[in-house]
Amino acid sequence: GPRHFAHAFDRPVVSLFGPTHIGWTETYHPRAVHLQKRVECGPCQLRACPLDHRCMTSLTPAEVLAAAEGLL
């Protein structure tokens, strides 16, 4: 995906993780910021959430913006 391209072209990138475990898809890109909320049900690796997608909905636009600004 986009973060793999960012690594290949040495560009900064912010990645949002929900049910996916960061370690399973790590690119080890030094200019990457990974955002993932710690929730009791995850990372679950499920494509369909039986709950309320709290791993994604708890990430705020302000957190994403702050991460992006930190890379600029």
TrEMBL record:
Q: Which organism is it from?
A: uncultured Geobacter sp
Which protein are we looking at? CAZy families GT9 protein
Give the CC-aspect GO terms.
Answer: cytosol
- Coiled-coil-forming residues are none
The molecular function terms of the Gene Ontology recorded here are: ADP-heptose-lipopolysaccharide heptosyltransferase activity
Q: Which GO terms describe its biological process?
A: lipopolysaccharide core region biosynthetic process
UniProt keyword annotations, A-Z: Glycosyltransferase, Transferase
* Pfam family of the protein (one): Glyco_transf_9
